From TrEMBL:
UniProt source species: Paracholeplasma vituli
Annotated protein name in UniProt: Glycerophosphoryl diester phosphodiesterase membrane domain-containing protein
The GP-PDE domain, residue ranges: 13-249
Ranges in a coiled coil: none
Signal sequence interval, chain numbering: none
Amino acid sequence: GADRQPIELFNRPSVIAHRGASIYAPENTLIAMETAIAQGADAVEIDVRMSSDGVLFLFHDTVVNRTTNLSNGAYIESLTFEQIQTLDAGTWYHPAFSGVKIPSLVEVLELIKGKVDLYLEIKGRTPGIEAKVVELLIEYEMIDSTTLMSFSRDQLRVIKSLNPDLETMMLIPVFFGSLSEVLDLDYVDSYGLRFDMIKANPEYIQMIHIREKRAYGWTINRRADIQMAVSYDVDGIITDDPLLAIELAYEK
Ligand code: G3P
Ligand code: CA
């Protein structure tokens, strides 16, 4: 809101709503993004895939079972966008959200543009997905307000070569060899660490900062964990509970 101190003055981590405000609304839906914006999050994190007919949309899992009304094990990317639009992505979370649809990336960009920053994880591995994402971000003039995230080094390299102005974030999975091995990759601007890794190796944050890169933690939901991440000086907290993270980030 307008009564807030700018982040730079306050030096607090940004609060990034993971899949939207996903403890308050079904993940990766417009209502989850609207909720995050209303709660005052600085940014939203989303998972992006491509439909069989080439439309970019939001969905975390590879199959439909957990977060739609279907339980036939269908691969979400094997469906056309029209078929995807027939799915109910709200009832599994709570009947009050019945009829909530899976949004296209375009719908999300239209909703958040000028309101919050975007942390866009490319989840799908469909060839050409990186170029399509970058094309849309250029069209919506959102290159400067977006960080593109991936677990795949190849994807990050492709993204950086498509548009050097795009901030990239390498996601670091649970079992990972040595962080130093990837710290100097020139196509990586920031690192997204699982919180248990930060907890075990808080010095990773300094190792990243020394290289003038940014360090983020995911997915940090508990009060004590958020406070710990704030004290370790992370640049951003990726959380399902932006409301709580905002309260604690401002306490610093
Ligand atoms: O923000 C990073 C985090 O979202 C990566 O894991 O499974 O929640 O997409 P996942
Ligand atoms: Ca994600």
